[in-house]
Specification:
With 510 residues, this protein is an alpha+beta fold. It has 17 helices and 26 strands.
Length: 510
């Protein structure tokens, strides 16, 4: 049985050491989490699979790691200083704060209709448009919200609402010893901007020709109004993003190719079932986007929600970060709407040799959340299996490449020094063979150890027993130097010669 709600996953993560609330002994920090011993392995495995697929297995990609601290002008010209805001509202009675569009989403259709009619919004079910219309006239909105009896989900009663207002999600921090209004930097809200502003550096240092892309993984920070749903919406998040640069005119085909490629990747490599994924075509586009398609995953409790967004951002970004924009032949939208850049020292252009022209490349951006990927992988893998004896076994059926531990070596008797020594020797041998994460564990009886590894998602358990030492109870020695290998998913056991063990393991964790 799959996890019917997120609480099951949260509880497993705490119990087994995947994910903990951050700063927990001081009451935590809202929207911030720490990855524990199993979590860090799972997360690294997911990132490694992504990097392998998107960088190593292609011939048109370069990796990069840019700084988290960001010059203010980067976010001024990217549009984040002005536009990276969510609408916010407070209830004076309950002191609860909400993302305004989400509050409207959670009202009855009748309430939305009343508000929409009062603010000339034609589609009252389009709660984002209703929120935007009210945000434009905050004073009138405050009265309208009271008149429409907008309910606070906290107490189920009509709230005493403040004016809705825009709230910028970017974190600011002080840089250097002197605190004045000029000495601040931003913590990046996405990894993307570091790739745009390094476009020329990567281009000239690698001699790339279009099309080519830059990939980056790393932390980003967003001061989310209501972080919630475990690691789905956090304030300190990790992203895996690609900026894929193409000649104008080649953008639409490249965009479609990335959508299909990543949809397939989530299914084939991360093990998400195709029926638990959906594509969502945005109808209301951001100012920079020509087309945006989200890959949604069906999270328990939440339903379908965004795992990755793939946008065709045209020449918006390189155009916005360039000097002398009027000379660049920018697309009409970028030329009209991008801020005049008075600080950049570069033209982020590409010399298109066959056509003897300088162009500002278009960019396609597949942007995925690492935390949301980890959560999807955990939700998909979680299974409660009822055994023949009625016992319920919790097992994480992770693809072996994602499993935090690949092999656990378990001694049948921890008070038998030869069994312990042999087990440790085997663990060492497996670990020395490469990057197969292997552990030795003798902290409980064998049944309990198996269950623990099932919950950790370990595909194989190797057990060393009396037969391994040639000390079989019936006196037989045919099993000397063999071990039992137990499979997580089927609980099937094989007897394998130690000399064949590495080959056997490699064949089963691929
Ligand atoms: P949402 O609409 O859910 O706020 P977004 O459209 O703002 O997300 P993007 O800016 O496209 O997200 O970021 C790319 C990816 O980063 C998202 O698809 C998501 O997986 C991840 N992401 C964004 N914000 C968060 C967050 N607060 N917590 C965890 N992951 C996030």
């Amino acid at each position: 049985m799959a996890a019917e709600n997120l609480d099951k996953i949260v509880s497993l993560c705490k119990r087994r050491g995947f994910i903990f609330p951050s700063s927990e002994i001081y009451g935590g920090l809202q929207g911030v989490f720490d990855y524990g011993p199993l979590g860090v392995e799972l997360k690294n495995n997911l990132k490694r699979l992504w990097w392998k697929h998107n960088v190593y297995e292609r011939d048109d990609m370069e990796g990069i790691e840019t700084a988290l601290l960001t010059n203010r002008y980067v976010l001024r010209y990217s549009g984040h200083e002005k536009g990276f805001a969510d609408p916010l509202i407070d209830n004076r009675t309950t002191k609860k704060r909400y993302r305004f569009d989400h509050l409207l989403r959670d009202q009855t259709p009748e309430v939305r209709l009343t508000l929409a009619q009062g603010f000339d919004v034609t589609d009252s079910e389009d709660y984002e448009s209703v929120a935007l219309a009210l945000l434009d006239e905050p004073t009138r909105a405050e009265a309208a919200l009271k008149a429409a009896k907008v309910i606070d989900p906290e107490d189920g009663k009509p709230g005493d609402w403040t004016e809705p207002r825009a709230f910028n999600l970017v974190f600011k921090t002080q840089v250097g010893p002197v605190a004045d209004s000029e000495s601040f930097a931003y913590l990046r809200p996405e990894t993307a901007q570091g790739m745009f502003v390094n476009f020329k550096n990567v281009l000239t240092s690698t001699n790339r020709k279009l099309p080519f892309g830059i990939a980056q993984q790393g932390k980003s920070f967003r001061n989310e109004i209501t972080p919630r749903n475990f690691i789905f919406r956090v304030r300190e998040l990790e992203q895996m993003e690609i900026e894929y640069f193409v000649l104008p005119g080649e953008d639409e085909a490249a965009h479609e190719a990335w959508i299909q490629d990543h949809l397939t990747w989530w299914v084939e490599k991360v093990g998400l079932k195709r029926e638990n994924l959906a594509l969502f075509e945005h109808t209301k586009l951001s100012h920079y986007s020509k087309r945006t398609v989200d890959i949604l995953y069906k999270y328990p409790t939440l339903g379908f929600d965004e795992l990755e967004g793939i946008a065709n951002r045209t020449d918006w970004d390189l155009g916005s970060h360039s000097k002398e924009q009027d000379s660049l032949g920018l697309s009409a939208n970028t030329a009209e709407k991008a801020m005049r850049n008075e600080h950049s020292t570069e033209k982020l252009t590409y010399f298109d040799q066959p056509n003897n022209r300088h162009v500002v490349p278009y960019v396609v951006e597949p942007a995925a959340g690492v935390d949301r990927g980890v959560l999807a992988a955990l939700c998909e893998a979680y299974d409660e299996e009822t055994l023949e004896n009625g016992e319920v076994r919790v097992v994480l059926r992770l693809p072996p490449a994602l499993a935090p531990i690949k092999v656990a070596v378990l001694p049948l008797a921890k008070n038998k020094p030869e069994i312990v020594a042999k087990s440790k020797e085997i663990k060492k041998m497996i670990q020395a063979s490469g990057d197969i994460r292997s552990v030795y564990d003798d902290t409980a009886g064998i049944g309990k150890l198996y269950r623990r590894q099932d919950e950790a998602g370990t595909p194989l358990c190797v057990t060393v027993d009396y037969d391994t030492l040639g000390q079989s109870r019936d006196g037989g020695t045919e099993l000397v130097d063999t071990v039992t290998v137990r499979h997580r998913d089927t609980m099937h056991q094989d007897r394998v010669a130690i000399s064949d063990l590495l080959t056997y393991i490699q064949a089963h964790i691929r």
